[in-house]
Amino acid sequence: MNNLFSHIPQSLEQELFEDIVKNEHVRIERIVSNGQGSPEHGWYDQVDNEWVLVLSGFGIIEYPYGNAVKLKQGDYLTIPAHQKHRVKSTSPTEPTIWLAIFFPT
């Protein structure tokens, strides 16, 4: 048995990405952030759909045209394949724990 809230580092220089399940149909990933965001010069442009849930903390997802969505504990969002996006910011005072599920279109 495992727990999504176990083994959370006290401090992180970079976001922590860990695959929980990965096969040809789905990838489930735990992401731990502590104040990090995506690089300013890059956007995610993924071939799969992404369903993301914030388990603790908060994160702001930004889209290329300036609109943004703040996700807090319990909030989730589906990001369609090839929808450019990035993480603008995450909580600097507590770990932001994300659960991301990637699945084909």
TrEMBL record:
Lineage at the top is: Bacteria, Pseudomonadati, Pseudomonadota, Gammaproteobacteria, Vibrionales
Origin species = Vibrio marinisediminis
Q: Which InterPro entries match?
A: Cupin_2 (IPR013096), RmlC-like_jellyroll (IPR014710), RmlC_Cupin_sf (IPR011051)
All copies of domain Cupin type-2, residue ranges: 35-102
| Protein name as annotated | Cupin domain-containing protein
